[in-house]
Amino acid sequence: MYLALLVIFLQFSELYTQDKVFTFNTVEIKVEPSVKVRNGAPMSIICHADISKSADFQLKYNFTIFKDHKLVFMTVSDTGDAQYEVPVAKSSDTGDYQCTVKADKKTRSSDPVHVWVTGMTKPTLTADKRDVLEGEVVKLRCELPEEDPPLQFCFRKIKTNSTPRETCVPESYTNFSVLEVSVEEGDNILQFDCFGRRNVKLEWEDSAHSNKTLVTVREPFIKPTLTTVPSSNNVTEGDQIQFECSTVVVEMRDIEIILQKNKSILNSVQDKKLLRYSTVATLEDSGEYLCKVEQGGASKTTKLNVVVSELFPKPTLVASMTKLDKNKELILNCSINGFQTANFSIIRKNANGDIPLKNSQTLKMRVNVNDTGSYTCKAEVKGIVKESKPVRINVYAPVSKPTLSVAGGLPEVVLGKPLQLICHSVMGTPPKTFRFYKGDDVEKIVINDTYATFLDENIRLNDQRGYRCDARNNHSSGVKTSDILNVTVIVPVRDASLGSVPYGEVEDGSEIAFLCSVKEGSLPILFRFFKKTDNEVLLFEKIEHRDRAMWHKETMKRQDTGTYYCVASNRANVDVRSQPITISVILAAWKKGVVAALVLITIAGAGALALWWFLRKKKKAKGPSMEMSGSALAANLTSEKLARQPNDGDYYSGPDLESAEVEYTEVEVSTLDPHRDSMENRHSRISGHPDAT
């Protein structure tokens, strides 16, 4: 019975559970009165969940509202709606709002909605001082207590009848900013205000301007007064001029007066109200003067323009000649246009200091080369000294006879290569003008101090023109000419060839002659003979004053077989190599005869053995003893024949058997004469050589 009741309860529970089915259709968020709210107005963020149910049953809804992904509101409700109230909207409430609803085990979120609270609260501005001196600093503080960073604060400095000066300061972490403002000269009555600024969706939004703060400025000292005695427009060279700069100070503490001209400080005093400066006036003293008074951060200036009249013009130095020969007389005269009374001196300029020559208006001197340089004169009137423009004097020594040489040393050049010549003149005052001649033609003109170079790239074989050069400077002696230089043209060696007598083959023990020749090339020529091996062995070398060289090798051996070539060169330093020739060393004629005789004897021995074998076959009827004796005899004779050597053509034909019918053949072998054979080869032509006879 209990079991049946349990089954019925479970079935009813399952049916009840199946009836509690729901799903989220949508979750929405809306803003009232709108997504754009005025700063200070109330604002409501409403979250609504639209749900479908399988039956009418109760659900608990957990609402969570986020602003810019940060939690701002949570609530639990029996309905599908929740409301987040903001009584006073501020600019910090601007952002993206999103709602998340959780019911049972299901969660759904709305799309984000951007809310913009327009307008910012009015900032407040305070100043640490209301009464300041020029040069002091005022500290300003601008604050937006109801706004959240990041913010930007803009401070404005307002002067009467001028455009406000604005300075903006960004603040990433605070809702206030502090700025120090220096009070400058002329800042009498100042007003300051500020406003805030923030960036919303890439747009700047400004707050209203703060309250205005008034700051009164007092002068720590008055603007200085600058005067001169005599007056600034009545000063002449030589006058004693005195400058005075003064001011009135509220407090004599850390005050400084400075006198300047063209940014150069002439004089200065500290903790005094008056500055004096005196000097003898010159033309260079004309210009603008500046008197500056400084105390702390305050600074005031006064300018005065001074004009100094000329007492006398600069002197003029005149030379009798500016370019003259060594040992000539030079006259220098110094004068002032329209002014006669002055103290004159003539000076030579030097890098280490001026050299006074004479305290006079005129100087006469006989010059040397060392007197070349710049000269000036000075004139003094009433303590004012003026200097003339420099005059350049050049004293010339004559050039020496130039020498012309080849840069390489020897007076020769390889055909096809450029020729570099050097013209050198040891003596004479630079600059010097050098001219190069080829024959009578001027090839190049060079201006230099001691030497000049010329490159002739047009070298021809049969050009007989000599080279010369001349040199001159500004000395009156004129041109000096070098001796004529004749240059030898070296023709490089061309087309080397190698031949031999005999050619190709030579007998062992005999001699051979090699001939190496060239088609052209300047003499002398170095000929070198080589045998081609792994190490390129030099066999013979010789210097000849002709276009060929011969090398005799008296005895050739079998190991001399190989490939030969020659190399020719001259002073052009170009090695020309011939085509190789191959020489084979063969047996001498008499050695060939000996070999032939040995061959014939061997053949004859073989014939005799064959004859013996034939006769033995015919005498088979005889007894065994006869065969044995015959065999022994044949063996002995054969051994004797093999051991015997041919002698002067004698030919051994075989054994002498009386009982046998033997046919004899007499062979005569003549011995070859090696000397006669080599002489015949020697008188043959030198094969393989174009100049062979």
Question: Which helices and strands appear, and what pairs or packs with what?
Answer:
Elements: H1 2-19, E1 22-32, E2 36-38, E3 43-53, E4 61-67, E5 70-77, E6 81-86, E7 95-103, E8 106-109, E9 113-118, E10 124-127, E11 131-133, E12 137-143, E13 151-158, E14 165-171, E15 176-182, E16 189-200, E17 203-206, E18 213-218, E19 225-229, E20 235-236, E21 240-246, E22 255-261, E23 264-270, E24 274-280, E25 287-295, E26 298-306, E27 308-309, E28 316-319, E29 323-325, E30 329-335, E31 343-348, E32 355-358, E33 362-366, E34 373-381, E35 384-387, E36 391-396, E37 403-406, E38 412-414, E39 419-424, E40 432-438, E41 441-448, E42 451-456, E43 467-472, E44 480-481, E45 488-490, E46 494-501, E47 505-507, E48 512-520, E49 525-531, E50 537-544, E51 548-553, E52 562-569, E53 576-577, E54 581-586, H2 589-618, H3 624-643, H4 674-682
Parallel strand pairs: 2-9, 11-18, 20-27, 29-36, 38-45, 47-54
Antiparallel strand pairs: 1-3, 3-6, 4-5, 4-7, 7-8, 7-9, 10-12, 12-15, 13-14, 13-16, 16-17, 16-18, 19-21, 21-24, 22-23, 22-25, 25-26, 28-30, 30-33, 31-32, 31-34, 34-35, 34-36, 37-39, 39-42, 40-41, 40-43, 43-44, 46-48, 48-51, 49-50, 49-52, 52-53, 52-54
Helix pairs in contact: 2-3
